[in-house]
Amino acid sequence: MNRILDTIVERTREDVAVRQKLVSVSDFRSFEEYHHPRRDFGKALDKPGGVSVIAEIKKASPSKGIIRSDFDAVRIARSYEMNGASALSVLTDEPFFQGALSYMRDVSSASGIPVLRKDFIIAPYQIAEARAYGADAVLLIVRILDNSQLKELHAAAVEEGLQVLVECYDIQDWDRLDFDMVTIAGVNNRNLETFEVDLHRGVSLLGTAPDGVLRVSESGLSTWNDMEYLQRHGIHSALIGEHFMRAEDPGAALSELARWQSTGHEAGNAAEK
After folding, report:
1. Separation CA 107–CA 231 (nearest Å)
2. Set 83, 89, 118, 228: catalytic member
3. The CATH number of the domain where 107 resides is what?
4. What is the domain extent for residue 255?
5. 47 catalytic per annotation
């Protein structure tokens, strides 16, 4: 596993152990958000004739540092929703991404569209925690889980009524997926060693998913050409964060990127020249 992932997973393991001592799984059932109906994450991504957008709310990253200093999770979420986001992704990792579970809770309460918990989930405790803080879906990263963990956590999410986006980085991750279980598959276009983005590699892997599996392209997407390329290759959804978060108005940046679907690719080419 990549060194930064090793470090993050080890810190996550320590933090989860501390949180479990403070709040038990049974305690989560007393949270108001735990009892809210879940929104259909998969249905939201399946946009006939186009590519849906999972708009990410992210303050910082280990490689880039602070991405957005003017950070108001609810304001950003409302701007995303108003400008056509199909779903929201909220970073809840605190040590490395300066996220918070409270951000997700507040975003979930303020939004009418599904919310994905994006974190380094390694324990069933985090699944129950996700539901208690308003998530409709969770991200499971294949690279940090063995096959038994992946199966256990997927089953725990289903039991909690949450949907799962399973994220791969390469062919080795992809070949481990059990498509009898996986219904939403994503590929992160960023190379963990070099941080370079290869959209073609991700799309190539996603293209081998069985019929009926929702395909999500993640990371490094920023242009009309990117979106047209995804649509042309049958990708259902794009998870986009940094491009929006660096914009003056994240929602306006989303609206501009999505505009190619109504104005056409030729207009997109002209705009990008």
Report:
1. 28
2. 118
3. 3.20.20.70
4. 3-272
5. no
